Amino acid sequence: MKRFPSFPIILLGALGISVLSFPSCSEKNEFEYHDEAASGQMVFNAIDQNGNVSAIAQGTSVGVYVVGEDGNVTLHGLAVDGDGRVVVPTSSRSDSIVAYIPFQEGWGVDAFFSYPLFSVLTDQSIQEQYDASDLMIGSCGPSTGEKVDSITFRHVLSKVAIHVIDETGHLALDQISVKLLNVNHRVEVDLPQQRVMTIDKERSDILMLSKVTTDWRISSYAIVAPQDISDGTLFFTVMLNDKEFTYPIPQATTLQSGKTYTINLRLKFYGLVPDGWYITDWDEVNETNIDVQL
What mean pLDDT comes out for the span 270-278? Predict the structure, then answer.
């Protein structure tokens, strides 16, 4: 168990293409107390990095652990409403919050004190299954401040992105699919510490979510467990025209928690050519904020 806080050129002739043949609440953002809070509610307002409402979609399932001053823990399975809010029952603004997305039916109160298992789906080719694989955790400690606080939900798994850019203009991009090969897909989750531990022996292929983003580019995405990948390991397969073309990892690397590992390929008249790789934060911004109001 691990803990985690050069391609070949594929010739176009083979493709059959006709043209070529608990952090504490910050001082800046803290709980705001209202008299009506005596009713025992905490309201989460979903915002993005820029303060826009509904960064988390309506209906998103959220698991919320409320930790009292006495250490007592209660669990609530909730959903984001049409106004981008989640209402959490709580008895005191001194309570701490640990929340995660998406809600897991099998995680009870005991999961807070143990290491529950989470697995990404092996078929992430549709958006709902990709989203169901995206584990995010956030927390906020007790506060005595008077400002609204923000809980930051962080992506704790790793994302792989593979972009294929067609420079020929003769490829039906929506016919391309991509899968990752023999990658770790299961983790143990430490909810209080907001981290995961990868189970090394749990491996499978993962079919990626593919989106045609422009007339000349298709992007494929998958979420996996954080892991080390050795140099030369066969890493992904591009499927096109009933043929499969497999590529190794460009070089030994670590797929890190909260990071995106990106590979670029260019389809030229003489072949499918590597065009670099890099690691960035998740979508360049690796966190989603939720305001908490008591």
Answer: 85
Whole-angstrom Cα distance, residue 232 to residue 229? 9
* pTM exceeding the 0.85 threshold for the entire prediction: no
Q: In the block, which residue shows the tokens 């966190």?
A: 287
Q: What region, left, alpha or beta, does residue 59 occupy, with left being phi > 0 and alpha being psi -120 to 50 degrees?
A: left
pLDDT, tens only, 27-80: 333 222 222 333 355 665 544 444 444 467 778 888 999 998 888 999 999 887
Bridge partners for 291 per DSSP: 45, 150
Residue 134 carries which side chain, given as an amino acid letter? D
Residue 218: both structure tokens together? 């298709």
d(CA 175, CA 74): 48
- CA–CA separation, 217 and 47 (whole Å): 30
- Give the single-character DSSP code of 252: -
The amino acid at residue 233 is T
Least Cα distance to 101 among 23, 47, 155 occurs for 155
What is the rounded distance in angstroms from the CA atom of residue 286 to the CA atom of residue 294?
26
Q: How confident is the model at residue 143 (pLDDT cuts 50, 70, 90)?
A: low
- Tokens representing 163 are 């972009």
Measured in whole angstroms, the distance separating CA 159 from the mean position of its chain's CA atoms is 6
